[in-house]
Amino acid sequence: MKVAVFSSKAYDKKFLNAANEGVGHELVYYEPKLDETTARLAADAQAVCAFVNDTLNRQTLTVLSQLGVKLIALRCTGYNNVDLQAAADLGLTVVRVTAYSPYAVAEHAVGLILTLSRKYHRAFNRVREGNFSLDGLLGFDLQARTVGIIGTGKIGMVFAEILQGFGCRLLAYDAYPNPHFPQLKRAEYVTLDELYAQAEIISIHCPLLPETYHLINRDALAKMKKGVIIINVSRGALIDTEAIIEGLKSQKIGALGLDVYEGEDELFFQDLSLKIIQDDVFERLLTFPNVIVTGHQAFFTQEALTEIATTTISNISDFAAGRPCPHQIRYQPKS
User: Fold this and answer.
1) Comparing 2-100+302-329 with 102-293, is the CATH topology the same?
2) Which among 37, 42, 70, 242 is most buried, taking Cβ atoms within 10 Å?
3) Architecture of domain 102-293
4) How far apart are CA 23 and CA 243, in angstroms?
5) What residues have CB less than 8 Å from 115, skipping those under 6 apart?
């Protein structure tokens, strides 16, 4: 099967080619993001392989359908960028990577907490300049701290297990509770408001859905402890960035660690070091000394990329062979 791979980087080629070895799909790589203007690059392809910031709205999907594309293979877990109703209307099959190394994302979240709590980023820059003063670098122990976890799926559970090792008290909220979470020591489910009120650190591990859009907003911040640390390694739009900036300015938020950003589709996964970034909200975030932003790299480990590539190629092979694909996303009309 001929597959047009969009938003492709050197590492995508490396891992996808390795997974495709001996399978025989024809993978054609394109650096541009997939949208209605670049979709025509998929002419003669039966499938497209898309990533997290590609635009798969009705306009893009219509162009792909007209070109004869039958399969949308997402090499990511989230699919909020796909118009599933349009895909169903056009007879397009959509598949995704339902899971990959949860350790990659969970460990990155913990790394952000440690960096912010112990100010590694500031210490690193000081030492490089010959400044060995400890003033301004005072941190705190994680032991006995109360950590709020929003979402206890595979990643949220690994995150909880890691912090259990630090001796943290764990509070979690999930619309669909995981029966394994309460079995952890010092762990319990609470309401979202209780989590906001008690947690000293809050880490988000839930999908972006209409009901979770801007989950962390002005109202949510008003319920939180002063000095709370907020971590988001899930989806950028789970957080209202302008409300977060207000919280940072008022010092309601003690520190912020982001691996995702709601306007990241114009920024992340590309080198803009020689350009003037036009996103004023994002630039404002970077002015705070207690904010760390990484460029959507929490998933970026050898293990995770291997699993993503293997599952993606397997999904394409299932479709090509006419086999049921366990990772197909089906449109569910709202009742």
Assistant:
1) yes
2) 42
3) 3-Layer(aba) Sandwich (3.40)
4) 49
5) 121, 257, 292
Report yes or no: 307 and 101 within 8 Å, Cβ to Cβ: yes
Tokens of residue 243, six digits = 């409300």
What 3-state DSSP class applies to 106?
helix
Tokens of 51: 């990533």
Contact in structure between 163 and 142 (CB atoms under 8 Å)? yes
* pLDDT tens digits, 220-277: 999 999 999 999 999 999 999 999 999 999 999 999 999 999 999 899 999 999 999 9
| Cα-based distances in Å from 41 to 26, 79, 86, 241, 306 | 15, 22, 20, 34, 26
Structure tokens at 161: 């297990």
| Domain definitions of the chain by residue range | 2-100+302-329, 102-293
Q: What 3-state class would DSSP assign to 255?
A: strand
| Token pair listed for 122 | 């500031």
CB 197, CB 203: distance < 8 Å: no
Nearest to 159 by CA among 173, 147, 145, 142: 147
Residues taking part in catalysis:
235, 264, 296
Is CATH 3.40.50.720 what the domain over 2-100+302-329 is classified as, yes or no?
Answer: yes
Closest-CA residue to 12 (of 37, 30, 39, 34): 30
**Gap between the Cα atoms of 311 and 88, Å rounded:** 22
56's CB contacts (< 8 A; 6+ apart) are 34, 50, 72, 81, 82, 83, 87
- The residues pairing with 47 across neighbouring beta strands, listed in sequence order, are 3, 71
319's enclosing H/E stretch is helix 302-320
Q: What is the pLDDT of residues 147-169, one digit of tens each?
A: 999 999 999 999 999 999 999 99
pTM above 0.70, yes or no: yes
Tell me the longest C-alpha to C-alpha distance in the chain: 65
